[in-house]
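WP5 quarterly update. Target: ClpX-type ZB domain-containing protein. Source organism: Salmonella enterica. Length: 106 aa.
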Amino acid sequence: MEDIIDRESITSAQLLSCAIIIDERNKHIQRLASGRTLHLREQNLTPCAPPRPTGKELYCSFCGNNQHKVERLIAGPSVYICNECVDLCVDIINEGKSDAEDKNSD
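Structure tokens (predicted):
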């Protein structure tokens, strides 16, 4: 993990956030592959509208960059993620896939 942190110039908190996203994504993939549906009440979530602009600056919940420093800021329920953090997460996911493929080809 320290190697990834150094190589990608990220904080341990950012790496942990990506790991949480990947773990949740994998859970959703397994659920979708099984054909089981998941209702909002099973997740203890309630539907909500996207946040309305308040005149305040918005910040990425992962890297802390504000909405003016990034190309795009994606809103979730009370969290935001910028395009740069999404790209980082995609790179980490793809690296994991590449490592798994290398192990399987041996």
